[in-house]
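Structure ticket #2291
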Amino acid sequence: MNARILVVDAARRRWHLRVVRSEDTTGDPRRDYLLLGGEALCQRLLYEDRKALVIARGPLAFLPGNKTTVGYLSPLTGLPHYSFVGGRAHAELLNLGLDAVMLVGLDLPQTGFAYLTIRGSAPSLKVAWVDASGLPKGQRSSFYHLAEKELGGDPERGSIFTVGEGALLGYPTANLAVDGIYHAGRGGAGHVFARFIRALVLQGDPVDPAGWLVGRMDAVFDVRDREVRPRLEVYGERLSRRDGGTVTKLYATGSGERPTLPARNAQRVGYALSDLGARKVLSAQRVGQTGCRWCQVNCRHWHWVDVDYAPQGRDRYLDDFEPTYAIYAMLDLLPAGESLRDRLALIDEVEKRIIVPVEQLGVDVIDIGVGMAALFEGLERGWISLDDVPEKLQTGPYLGSVEKAAEVVEALREGGDAPALRALGAGPQGLVARYPMLRDTVFTCGAGTLGNPGHANALWTFLMPFSRFFGHYSGQIYKVSGELKPHMNSEELHALFEVVIQDMLRREFFGILGNALSACAFTFVIFSQDGKGEVLDDSDLLARTMGAYGITANRMALEWFAEAFWAQSIAFKMECGWQPPDAASFPLRVFEILSQVLDCPVEEVRVLMDMLIEEWKRQAGDVLAKFGYELSMSDL
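Resolution: structure written out below.
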């Protein structure tokens, strides 16, 4: 495979085109780039320049499930991070004749703020730097400003990347928005992006499928229509239906006899308002749904919110699990009464006073919500000095208060030098760095990790730091099955953990194939056996689909690549300073909540975690050794 790259030197305001080939392994024959899109292409370019930010697409144009991948070294973890984001960006990269845009140039100080427009079709591109002094600071505001100025008021004519106030204030949790409602949310993509430019507008010359596929259109559309789309009708149904989407997890995990949803800064599991993800509330609130370019799965459900920055005075906001968990459940927000009207009134207040300002601030809502919950507990316990917050935040109550949460967000938007809020701008672990007393209170996986994304269903769910990058979708670890039963002996535990880690690695290997194609995790399961997201299906649909595009790779080659890429990704993490943590590295809060879920003493859960980690090290070491990475168990 070849990848066509636009390299933009932001400091010198110049650009050039280049081609990257799969066989170019940057001097290390162990590295494998059989697939050269998405995460794989980002990683390949980050090997060259760790300060760069890469925006890449995958090669399977016109199929459902295409996403854009943003790769960079995270300012929050110091490690490679890959954010997968919806919208139109992947289609516009295709229209531009590009596989990726690579932002470089941090070797020189920036000389002023500008945004970038890229138009045309490679090699005849028009790249322009535009003065950003008139660009609004709010993330959503800047999107609408650019849609009007650069796309004639029609956002469907291109794709727009924006940062918000948080990036301009230097908050490492700053995210990167694409087309207003989609986010490269975790890892601090906006913080890195803003080092180069304020915004990015992509507008390519529309591509004709017949011309781009060059004689392969019948084969591609045949496999799409006969096999891909029918499978998506089955495996995407839960996301597309009127009362579907990711937010339904709130009800599924937050209610019932054995809930697993963390709430009130993960002091407990289960949330009294988990029915925000149930049919009755969703039906009363939702207006419409949408999906990414070319995708039949309209998984993004939305509702209107009245705002002062958008045309017609309203904007679309998504119903997603993670923001609802991080803001509502972790802050323990509850309505004034038990009626549906009370619930809708709370949603309306939270949207206007917290969610809309957070969107304008442009920060990762998970890290800010989880961090705010830890901040509030720290203030309640006296671990954070009242002098370290603005005067309006020096009195409680904190947890359970929409008022206090809104005041924190308002203060973050104002900037200022309040130490606790500057620390919060770096997420939960930023608070720990400033206030070590919070070390066991934050709901993360320890130093160099991000806020937990809302899963506490199993011991192994907390193995996110052991993925090739910290992301709950990188291997769908929370879906790994297995049951820790009471009074299991050592032999039984080892047998269980062996199977769990095998399953975890299988899921990561399969996920790598999707990520290297910049494919959506929700739709890529169609290429797995029975839609489980563990191994390739018996019919070899992925190999046959790629073959229709002229990409030759049989099942063995794909499986080889997946394992080799996983090994080189772990090695790359270690080159960047990562070492596998042990149980002592995890905050106590992790074991406290697992103790509730597993009905097991805290110290026993900690011992089990160390056993699980040792099994990961054993199996991970075998994979690394298989591909020539001579790392001893002490290295792991």
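Closing remark: The chain has a mean pLDDT of 93.
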